[in-house]
Amino acid sequence: MLARTFIQTPLSNLRPFTRSMASSTALERYKLIFFAPPQDLPKIKEAIFAAGAGRYPGPGGYTECGFATPGVGQFRPGDSANPHIGEKGKVEEVGEVRFETICVGTDVAKAAVEALKK
């Protein structure tokens, strides 16, 4: 899965974002952002939402919240690469989707990242 390529930030580097949200909880909020092939996005969203991502902590009980932006990614595999797509040394462009969602609490953020890796 191409999305695995883009998980380069260790969990220790997760940083909470701040935004004014009506909430009765004091848990930290994180924004999870990843890139994926369009055909894989539904399965990936299902996995991260099952891990608890995408739940808005405000009134209304919103779940599975996120934002998707289509685009074109570019990369050039190096000499030591074993590319799933493209060839070593040649620039490749592929359609992909940038997806972002909220994770409330460190445990949810870590679980969502683990779900993303699978």
Automatic annotation (TrEMBL):
InterPro entries: DUF34/NIF3_sf, N-reg_PII/ATP_PRibTrfase_C
SUPFAM superfamilies in UniProt: NIF3 (NGG1p interacting factor 3)-like
Domain of life of the source: Eukaryota
PANTHER family the record matches: NGG1P INTERACTING FACTOR NIF3, PTHR41774
Name this polypeptide is given: ATP phosphoribosyltransferase
Biological classification of the source: Eukaryota, Fungi, Dikarya, Ascomycota, Pezizomycotina
